[in-house]
Design goal:
With 252 residues, the protein is mostly helical. Helices cover 69% and strands 3% of the residues. The chain has a two-stranded antiparallel ribbon. The mean pLDDT is 77. It is a multi-pass membrane protein. Belongs to the tetraspanin (TM4SF) family.
């Protein structure tokens, strides 16, 4: 029969391995949240932050909060397992359970709100197209530059196609289109070009693919965290019991 001390050593090893994975995943969330918080001109911020709608700010704060808690919790778990401090192990396991429940709730919320978020994504894209080139909204130029970069790099025009630009009221004449809708290096908002020389594809498919890829990465990190936490909670509980047994019967 394996001695309790040997069980403790094995459990400490695996607990620290999974705790290291947990910390790495937590740092990924922290980095992603920091990127959203600091870089206000990324595509997520452009399409999800307007007026009273500050979805990106909420998401970044949530990711920063979860990432910070995971980092702190990992340190507590490492110290508790190495030093075999039972109160730290209990704290570690309790926080793990709390974070696990929080992540499950967030995952369910994202699934329930997915369609709403998709509609918001499209509505905000249309809003940016309508405001594009408005001289009274000079503070929006970074947003328009991002739209130009998307159209130029993806060789697309508008959300669904070039006809969407007919709704824009900031042109000198209704036949003008953004210079980024053609193979042009001109540094101005609109160009006079024939309709048949513009990119025929809309950008919606590319934007949705980009969005889905980023959500997929975030989902993969979340699922990996949940699986890792199941192992961590189980190992921590077993380690706690064996440490307590070892203190009562140290020779077993």
């Amino acid at each position: 029969r394996m001695k309790i001390r040997d069980k403790i050593l094995i459990q400490k090893y695996y607990l620290n391995v999974f705790n290291g994975i947990f910390l790495a995943l937590g740092l990924m969330l922290l980095t992603f949240g920091l990127w959203l918080f600091v870089d206000r001109n990324n595509l997520f911020s452009v399409l999800f932050s307007s007026g009273e709608n500050q979805l990106v700010a909420y998401i970044s704060c949530m990711l920063l909060g979860i990432g910070s808690v995971i980092t702190f919790t990992s340190a507590v778990g490492f110290l508790g397992s190495v030093k075999e401090i039972k109160c730290l192990l209990v704290t570690y396991m309790s926080v793990q359970i709390l974070v696990f429940v929080t992540q499950m709730a967030i995952s369910v919320l994202i699934f329930v709100k997915k369609e709403e978020v998709h509609n918001q994504w499209n509505n905000r894209t249309d809003e940016v197209i309508s405001e594009y080139g408005n001289e009274s909204l000079a503070e929006q130029e970074p947003v328009w530059n991002i739209l130009n970069a998307v159209q130029h790099n993806m060789e697309c025009c508008g959300r669904y196609n070039v006809t969407q630009w007919e709704r824009n009221k900031n042109k000198e004449n209704r036949t003008q289109i953004p210079c980024s809708c053609i193979k042009s290096s001109l540094k101005k908002w609109f160009c006079d070009v024939p309709r048949d020389s513009t990119y025929s594809m809309g950008c919606e498919e590319y934007l949705n693919t980009w969005f889905e890829n980023n959500v997929l990465i975030l989902t993969a990190i979340t699922i990996s965290l949940l699986i890792t936490q199941i192992f961590l909670i189980t190992l921590t509980g077993q380690l706690f019991r064996n440490i307590r047994k070892n203190n009562i019967w140290p020779n077993e």
